[in-house]
Amino acid sequence: MKKIIIGIISGASAGVIDLIPMIVQKLPLTANFSAFIMWAIIGFLLSIIKWDINSFLKGIIISLLVLSPSAIIIGSNEPLSLIPIFIMTTVLGAVLGFIIDKLIKSI
To answer: What phi, psi does 27 have (nearest 5°)?
Structure first.
């Protein structure tokens, strides 16, 4: 249970970081809420999935997989907006994967 709590809290923290540029851009509240929830879910998944791969890579893979359904919708309306989204998801996913791995190993 501690692992799940670590994952969700860490994911929510990544969600707050992801929200900063979204709020500056004045994106709709639904987009902000969706991104925040996405990161909480990614944190949860990173805390329970056991893969024998580098934690950075695990974070990137899980993050991009979770993003992919939304990316299809976003890309159909605004394809160029996917560039910063993929960059942010890759960076935050890698960092989140590493942090969750270290926090879980410390308990």
So the answer is: -75, 160
Residues 12, 41: contact at Cβ < 8 Å?
Answer: no
pTM for this predicted structure: 0.95
Range of the domain at 25: 2-105
- Cα gap 56→60, rounded to integer Å: 6
Q: How many domains does the chain have?
A: 1
Give the rounded distance of the alpha carbon of 54 from its chain centre.
Answer: 17
Per-residue model confidence as pLDDT tens digits over 55-91: 999 999 999 999 999 999 999 999 999 999 999 999 9
Q: Are 74 and 92 spatial neighbours (Cβ–Cβ below 8 Å)?
A: no
Q: In terms of pLDDT, which residue wins out, 57 or 107?
A: 57
Helix (H, G, I), strand (E, B) or coil at 3: helix
